[in-house]
Amino acid sequence: MLYYTGIGSRQTPDADLSQMTIIASNLEPTGFILRSGGAKGADTAFENGVTEEDHKEIYLPWKGFNNSKSSRYTITKEALELAAHYHPAWSRCSTAAHSFHARNCYQVLGQDLNTPTQFVLCWTPDGKIAGGTGQAMRIAIDRGIPVINMATPGWSITFDKLTQAILQT
């Protein structure tokens, strides 16, 4: 199975949101399965590009988040421990924030926390590691998973080369 993580800031510009939906619709027929988190903005844009339910894994911090029908909302102790390891200020986060950050672990590593995504495609302000997207980025970078940030110049060339290389193997 081929997985990618499609996520980003709720402040993602409209033009990038449109592009995310197009990218998701182009990746779906090639066999890629989207992993995302059901948040407004980038997450929803990626999800909107996927037509088949079994071609996406939407991980939620709790049941019914943003009216999502996804059944992937259980947060395990292992995910919370992993999230704590990667978050720079875990002790200052609320219980809700803990659930958000733990769900980011699933977005990158899958339901079993042991099936890594092939790459993370995201948008963050100024291309920086920030917010919930930053949590997923830290996990991916630490695990050697490519992170392509649409807010950085030349991202589309990197994205095209990476996806072509993955699909040729």
Tell me, what is the CATH class? Alpha Beta
CA-CA gap between termini: 12 Å
Which oligomeric state applies?
single chain
Helix content bin: 40-55%
CATH topology: Rossmann fold
Strand percentage, roughly?
5-15%
Number of strand elements? 5
Question: What does the overall shape look like?
Answer: globular
Average of the residue pLDDT scores: 97
Can you tell me the number of structural domains?
1
Order of helices and strands: EHEHEHHEHEH
Number of helices: 6
- Contiguous low-pLDDT stretches (5 residues minimum) are none
Whole-number radius of gyration?
A: 15 Å
Give the second-level CATH assignment, the architecture: 3-Layer(aba) Sandwich
Strand arrangement across the biggest beta sheet: 3-2-1-4-5
Biggest beta sheet summary:
5 strands, parallel
Q: Which structural category do the helix and sheet elements fall into?
A: alpha/beta
Model description:
With 169 residues, the chain is an alpha/beta fold. The chain has one domain (2-168): Rossmann fold, CATH 3.40.50. Helices cover 43% and strands 12% of the residues. It contains six helices and five strands. The chain has helices at residues 14-27, 42-48, 77-86, 95-109, 131-142, 155-168; strands at 2-6, 32-36, 56-58, 119-122, 147-149. A five-stranded parallel β-sheet has the order 3-2-1-4-5, sandwiched between helices. The chain starts with a strand and ends with a helix. The mean pLDDT is 97.
Q: What is the gist of this entry?
A:
This protein has a single domain (about 1-169), classed as Rossmann fold (3-Layer(aba) Sandwich).
